[in-house]
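Lecture 7, part 2: worked example. A protein chain together with zinc ion.
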Amino acid sequence: MGGSPGDRDWGGILTPELIVAGGTVVTSDGKQEMDISVADGQIKAIGPDLIADGARILDATGMLVLPGIIDVHTHLRLPDAEHPDRFRRDTLAAAHGGTTTVLTFNNPGTGISAEAGRSLLAGLDEFQVRTAGESPIDFGLSAVISGHQASPIGELPALIAAGVPTFKAFMVYDFRLPDEDLEQAMRTAARHGGMLQVHCEEPAIIDPLVADALRMGQTGCRFHALTRPSRAEGVATRKAIEMARRAEAPLYIVHLSCEEALEAVAEAKARGEPIHAETCPHYLALTDALYADPDEAEVIKRVISPPLRTEADVDALWLGLRDGTLDVVGSDHVPDRLDGEKRIPAPPFPEISNGAPGIETLLSVVYSEGVAKGRIGVARMVEVLASNPARLFGLPSKGAIEVGRDADLVIWDPRPDHLMRQADLHHTSDFTPYEGMRMQGAVREVIIRGRGIGETLGRFLERRLA
Ligand SMILES: [Zn+2]
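Predicted complex, written out as structure tokens:
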């Protein structure tokens, strides 16, 4: 079956005007067979039987036409001497998977220099210099606020003014932000038009479990998951929501993985609070049964935080996506390699790099596990992968197929199926956590601001929250 994304030819769409004809156009309101005319990088018209002299016609008969996917959660590696091309290759991989815009973090481990890691403004400068001209798709930064920085809260207004209105803070890890600083950061960001994204796990629950495991000599990969129970995420999620309430601030909860945390978000939303939540494809498609594999080289591929959860959590997350408790699916792409950052044979579990790749497989996994299996409709998929990310992250020119928006389009063929294989992927990791899974549908073409991949250079996006 020719569903592999590896053998596409990107060239040939360079034309002053383009008409995408005969496809089923999907928006968050529904789907309809329509033509789309594109000029100057934007959508100019949507309607039946559009014609234009000299325009190139892209026949999308039988295809779904989706807005380009916006992945707001990635940890791309910045270019440096050791990894000169991984930023470019991973953003190209994103495009192969149907993603036309990424937001990335500059947390420790992404190659940010220690000096730039100590200041938000220095971090932004370094990010812009090192990524200039490196991405085929549009991209932006969500800056990481860490306990290693001298005065991150004081720098928030300047970052927001510079077009970086979203910030990630961690409640765990050695670079976490102390609770009192986290609440102050929420307050300051909100007053200046910004929003915090928070990694919710409670170290007061996790740290003693890790210490106990190590004392008993339980150092294997699977103890990573066993020492990070869902309770640690549920408790931290409630705590972060309470902080946001006191700070009168919006809050975006990243990579929500379990039912306990989902309930906390549902309650906050029912109270009318501006709490937004994201889950990730791995929490929707994989379970903690994988941690029982006796092969450490398999288990280490799923050493992520939070860890994979139970089948019941997976079901709860799909319901949460469907009923609006969850707003976004982001990949949490970490381009780790087994022969690089992860290290095989595995070190004791606290030393294992947390993360797994997903930048290229986001749309495939959500379509296959969600739409093809009848758990969400295709319009809802577009909402959580494009429209909501654009709305929540200050990207008004993106996220929907509407006249005047950027012509970022994915031509998606819903018919073919194939097995996911690392060998077919373009990302810079040397594995995929979805190896061997059956996938439904395939990307046929990706258009970024009216052009094919490789015909345009992605730009750094300055953002303002609505
Ligand atoms: Zn992450």
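The chain has a mean pLDDT of 94. Residues 343 and 424 are 23 Å apart (CA to CA). Keep this in mind for problem set question 3.
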